[in-house]
Amino acid sequence: MALLIRNLSQIATPRGRGPVRGAAMRELAVYDGAVIVIDGGRFVYIGPERDKPAEIVIDDDVDAGGATAIPGFVDTHTHLPFAGFRESELNRRLRGESYEQIAASGGGIASTVHATRRASEEELTANVLARARTMSRYGTTTAEAKSGYGLNLDDELKQLRAIRSADSPVRLVATCLAAHDFPPERRGDAAYVDEIVERILPAVAEAKLAVFCDAFVERGVFTREQGERVLRAGAALGLVPRLHADELSDTDGAALAASLGAASADHLMHVSDRGIAALAASDTVANLLPGTSFFLMSDRYAPARKLIDAGAIVSLSTDCNPGSSMTESMPMVIQLATLQMKMTVEESLTAATLNGAYSLRLAGSIGSIEVGKRADLVLLSAPNYLHLVYHFGVNLVVAVFRDGKNLS
Ligand SMILES: [Zn+2]
Q: What is this structure's pTM?
């Protein structure tokens, strides 16, 4: 059943089955007036309609109405399975209260941990599904989703099962983030690290509930040594490392991620020049989450220009979470990446699609509009891809296809 998408103003996509670095991030393939043909859930033809091989028989067609086609977004850092919101912290922060003051009075991550522990697996599954539906309305077709608000064996497993159970329109890839923080009832208790290594990660691997393992290395949270121990233990069980690195201070997290061969080093607002050089020399993706800086009203964004110019592989994600970045919108993230971090629109599109796919180890099958890849694409109500930033603050997405299936 081949499907032809016609009447496209433009198709814009990065190209390749691996990561893209440096100046190459600005090299999109741009087709004007071309068609897309999908069959068996994959792209089978992209180009002028008149050049379509005769052996491709069209069964159905869609009039795109002059839309622009781009690859489905790949959001590689989210904390989807949580319960409870923290909207009340916003006014407190606007009045000048610090994160530490809010946390000391029962807010912050501990409040999300309590709400998530109280929630049933069914409630968490429903939350994951609702957020995934919002993501797909904004063009995301693949997302990573982390645990990390259970912080004990049963509740971490519950979060990961909620990711697996959700009948999500977005392809979800799970990460165990048991090392997100110390449990609120045992702050700074080093024995929690033993529990992660000896009980939680083996149970996650045994039940095949995650592909990745993540840790938050930060002043006052886990030390470099503790983070490394968790990630090495995960890797020994087949869980590929990722790392929350250099978010609030420079802990040399980027270099740690690179030395461990981690799939990504995430946040990086405080990454040092040494950390940038380490990432540039590695295959670890620098995953930037500008929604966090924006929502926390910080002037400090990750040094995207330095990272790209040094040759690091850069991706972009929402960091969707109830405390510091309550958004499912990759277009919003792209607008921040360009207008605040000074990435070009082309670099941002590559970062939000193909490089994200690479960090999830999926660049061979998703992340670009190319023959043979899974047919994940977004139709934008726009004459060209530049409108993704130029026409900001509105949702330009008119249709989303995943594996060739129209989700809208
Ligand atoms: Zn995070």
A: 0.98
